[in-house]
Predict the structure.
Amino acid sequence: MSLLDSIHVFEDGIAGGAFETLAAADGDSLSIRDYGEGGKVTLISAWGADNATKCDFSIRSPLLHDNTRGLAWAHMFNPAQSGADGNPNVYLAEDDSQAYWRTDTLIAEVNGTAADDVAFTQLLWYEGANTPQAQMIGYEELEAQRVNTVGIRVSPAPPAATSTYGTSEAINADDDRLKANKRYAWLGLTTDLPFTTLALNGPDTANFRVACPGYRDEDVSANWFRGLAKALQIRCIPVIHSNNRGNTFTRLADVGGGTAPLIRLVLAELRD
């Protein structure tokens, strides 16, 4: 059995000049879930943002390569790209991954410029006999079962001036066009404004937050989960039953807060 989960961390108005700890968003935790002996945990993507300048992100623990910096990524900020200046940047290629260990507690840190706002999201894949079962399929299953593609509008509101998640919105609140009694694979998203992270959760995700970046290259974001499933050869494409649409929610987090994009969930209708 398998599921996807995510960890979103942030800090508004960092001290700057040295590495400092980032706090997990409400409902998230830097403690890796423990589903018993034999369970596997894998980091399959990571992305982050700084609202004003460049910075350095770090994920460390005694169980990673080292507990000094561990996983570390230099974050590029490009002021020549107005409105898409590095919010977010994706740090792992879609065929890259990093093993994590159950019971471990990660330390997320940033080193940047004083007063900047920063945000960082990790996407994790859990697999094991005791792992709660989320509804997911792999790349081959998707290609064999897909019928139609549809873009469903969502517009969850972010907080006005902070980099954590805002209020939740059901996926049928703005656009209730999913057919009754159908399964839909969530491939990714498109957006009219770049933003850091959209998280989706509901009965079909085992109520875990599945995250996708609001990346400036929509060829990447629209194909997010499909691309990961194909590259990594794992079943990590979330499947949503249309009858659960009123109980499936999105939340938006954007570095610095305040961004209100129009987002389309890219969904593939699946054969019965």
